[in-house]
Amino acid sequence: MIKDLCINAIEASINGGKVWIHTSHRPTYNILKVEDEGTGIKPEHLKKIFRPFFTTKIGSHGLSLASNYKFIQNCGGNIKVSSTIGKGTCFKVKIPIDESSNPISHMNKISDWNSDNDG
């Protein structure tokens, strides 16, 4: 997913446009943002970019964003996109944290782990 978003951002950022990757962590979710100074996505295309086989790139199959969208949805997350023609695009991905699979979460539930007793 990250690779696909970065490749799209790099390909859109012709003529030396910059690409930024931001991450942040919240107690219940993580956020990934991939921004570029690319050509932007036309408003009429924004509604279609997550549909399978939709593409504006020659030689592309139009499955990367669609499969990433489905993956993110299956994880309980979401993906949003904002874009301005001639200025760039920002994809924002929000993925929930599954505490049940977090080893630290399990360790914190052990009663003597959090006790002040050294005994």
Q: Can you give a write-up of this model?
A:
The protein is α+β, with helices and mostly antiparallel strands and 119 residues long. The protein contains four helices and four strands, in the order αββααββα. It has one domain (2-113): 2-Layer Sandwich (Heat Shock Protein 90), CATH 3.30.565.10. It has helices at 2-12, 43-46, 64-74, 103-108; strands at residues 19-25, 29-36, 78-84, 88-96. Residues 106-114 have low confidence and may be disordered.
Keywords:
single chain, four-stranded antiparallel beta sheet, Heat Shock Protein 90, alpha+beta
Share of helical residues: 25-40%
Q: What is the name of the CATH class? A: Alpha Beta
Instruction: Look at the helices and sheets and give the structural class.
Output: alpha+beta
CATH architecture: 2-Layer Sandwich
Number of domains: 1
* Element string (H = helix, E = strand): HEEHHEEH
Poorly predicted residue ranges? 106-114
Strand arrangement within the widest β-sheet reads 1-2-4-3
**Main sheet characteristics:** 4 strands, antiparallel
Give the CATH superfamily: Histidine kinase-like ATPase, C-terminal domain
Radius of gyration, whole Å: 19 Å
- The CA-CA distance between the termini, in Å, is 47 Å
Tertiary shape: globular
* Tally of alpha and pi helices: 4
In the CATH scheme, what's the topology name? Heat Shock Protein 90
